[in-house]
C-alpha cells in the first residue's frame, strides 16, 4: 500500500484558526496580524510587553552530515515539539522559512514530513507572508541606490572597482553568479563587474535574523559596508541614507510568523539563512519570544552539527545570550550505511557492518556538541527498511560515546512516536547538566578563530590561506572588527571541503578562498573550498514535477 505524500498529509490536516494557536501561548487575538485563517504575524508591541517574563528551556535539534539517504532534522524538530506537548509540557517550535531556490531545485521544502509537519505546507514553502520578498527588495534597493549615487556624481568617492554589495534573488541561477552591469551607454551608468547571491546568503537576511527590534535592525543595516574608496576607507549603507528606507521595507518582515503543526501545536517560522553559506538559524526575535511564552522551545540549526550547530552556538547564542539546555542529534540507519560506503540503491538491504563503518561520522558530531558543554541525545529517525540489528548497532555505538540513542517514529506516528525522545529531553534539561560555552573567546585573533573551528570541529590539521587573506583579517582587526565571530561557508556534505569525502576524515586541509566582512550582521564570512553563494539547479530540478492539478491544487511540492 502506497504511503500518502507529505503534501497529501498536510492538505488533510485538521487546522485550527490561528487565534486558537495564539491562545495556547497566551497571545491575545489583537496581538496577531492574520494572513488568512491559518497564519499570522505576532506584533512587536506584544513581544515588547512579554520581555519581563522568565525564559523556558531551549532545545537544539541538529544532525549528522546530510546524505542523499535523508536525515529528517526538521521532521524530528516538529515531532519532538509535538511529543513534548503530548507528555504535558507547554512547548513551541522555532524553524526557518523555506527558500524558493531549493524548493524548485533539489532539496525540497522546509516544513517537516509525514505526520510531523508544520502547516499550511504549500504556503510555507512558497511565498508565505512575503518575508523573503521584503528582504530581497530591501537588499536590491540598496544596490540600486549605490549605482544611482555613482551615476549622479559619486559624492562619496566610491571606487567602482571596490563595490562589494552584490544583488540577490531567491532562486537558484548559476548564470547570475558573475555578471557585468550597466552596459548600454552613458544613460545606464558606469559598467562594472558584479553578481547575484541567493537571498538566504544576503547580509540583510542575517541582520533580520539577529536583530532584537526595529531600532536594532536599522542600526545594523546602517553598519553594513557596501563599498570602499580609493584610499580603501569604507562606505556604509547609512552614508547613502539607505538604512531608513530599507527598514520601512522590512517593518512587517521583522515580526515573527505563527503557524501550527499537524497536531495544532504552535510553531514560529521566521528567517531563513542557509547554514552552508550563512549562519543557519531562525530569527533571534522568534526564538526569544517563544522562550518567553513556552516552557520548552525546540529549534533547529541547518545541515550537520559541524555547520548549523557550531554557528548556532558561536554566533546566535553568543549574540543573543542564549543558553541551550539539550542538543538532539538526528541520524538514520540509512545515512550510517551511506557513510559506511553503501550506495543509495542498496540501502534497503541489511548491512550491520556498513552501519558500524559509518557511525564515526555520528560520533564526531556527538563529541563536537558535547565540547560546547551541552548534553546530547541521539534521535534515530526510523525508516521502514531499518532492521533491529542495524538499530541496535547504532544504539551500542552511541552508548560507547557516553550518550543515548532513541528510536523515533514521528514520521509515521506523529507525537506518539516521539514520546520516548521527549521524555529523555525533559530528563536531561531538568538535570541541569548544561554548562554552555562558545568554542572561542571574542578577543581571539580572527585567523586563530578560523583555525580553531577547522581543527576542533572539522579535525583538519591546517588552514590554507594566502597572505592577502591574512592581511585582510589583520586589517579588519585594526579597524575594530577583531571581536567578531566567524561564519564558515563550507560544503554541508563533509567535515572537509570536499563534498564527496564522507565519514569522519582527519588530517585534511581547509582552504580559505575569500573572506567577507558582514559588519552589520556582526561576523566574518570565510569562504572555504568551492562553496558558492548562488547555487545552481540540478540536471533534473524539482520544478519539473511541480504543477497545478485539475482542482487548482499544488502537485509535486515536497
UniProtKB/TrEMBL annotation:
InterPro entries: Formate_THF_ligase, Formate_THF_ligase_CS, P-loop_NTPase. Pfam families: FTHFS (PF01268). It comes from the Bacteria. Gene3D superfamilies: Domain 2, N(10)-formyltetrahydrofolate synthetase, Formyltetrahydrofolate synthetase, domain 3, P-loop containing nucleotide triphosphate hydrolases. One of its GO terms (molecular function) is formate-tetrahydrofolate ligase activity. Its EC number is 6.3.4.3. The keyword Amino-acid biosynthesis does not apply. It catalyses: (6S)-5,6,7,8-tetrahydrofolate + formate + ATP = (6R)-10-formyltetrahydrofolate + ADP + phosphate. ATP binds at residues 67-74. Keywords: ATP-binding, Ligase, Nucleotide-binding, One-carbon metabolism. Pathway: One-carbon metabolism; tetrahydrofolate interconversion. Belongs to the formate--tetrahydrofolate ligase family. This is Formate--tetrahydrofolate ligase.
